[in-house]
Design brief:
The chain has 279 residues and is α+β, with helices and mostly antiparallel strands. It has helices spanning 29-38, 43-61, 92-99, 181-191, 259-265, and strands at residues 70-72, 80-84, 130-137, 140-148, 154-158, 163-164, 169-175, 200-202, 214-215, 219-223, 246-250, 253-257, 271-275.
Length: 279
Amino acid sequence: MKTNTQVLKRVELGELATEHTEFKVVQNAHMFGILSEKVYKDQIGAIVRELCCNAFDAHVEAGIPNTPIEVSCPTSNKPEFVVRDFGYGLSHEDMVTIFTTYGMSTKSNSNDYIGQLGIGAKSPFGYTDTFNIESNHQGQKTIYIAQKNSQGIPELISFGKSYPTEEMGLKITIPVRLSSISEFRSAIEKQLAYFHPLPLITPHIEIAPKPFDVETSEYGIRFQGTAATNRYSYGYSSAYLDPTKIRVLMGNVVYEINSDMAKTKGIPKVLELSYKTLD
């Protein structure tokens, strides 16, 4: 997704400026923790959303946008959250440069992709100290472990070996605490409700979003009822999306609009917009 880079005009000081000092970012556990944890209000929801959006983008890049990604919901017998795509995978060079660098993204120059900030792939570190990545790229399967080192700084571990494979794409596996299984299930229902195409989820979770009331190639509008108006039926199968909220859907992701701001601006709560294209 393209980033809006419009800024106020910088001040040209010419010879009046005697020294220019760039600001820096300290690379320590505290700063990495801010980038992995503090930027997300809902950590588990962020993991589901960010990894699935990256998988969807991989399919767009590979020219297979209508092929569903695969998601494994954690269970007590297999407490793992797994996201699998069938794109090109990542080369070893891309893994050690792009994947490990906060803020680096290959998607910021196109609205064909959802991602842009270069931090979503690192979102699991807000929940766990370690997770696994399997990259199937150009006939080679390579296994990596992403983990926090003894100083709490994320690092990527590779084993210097690759194995022949006919598979393609990236597979990310997150270990899940038994106490978090229901939260991951709820997050899957909520975060993936508007994905198109819907991911293939195992064990199966029924997700059936209501069609838009008004739909064009550019946008969709859904009218939703509220307790106050009761003018329209909510008609949505999931209990995890509050019908009294205003939401904008962009690139498979639902964003809630602050209700107080909506009241101030006179925006009705029964309106939900979906911008399908951002150009």
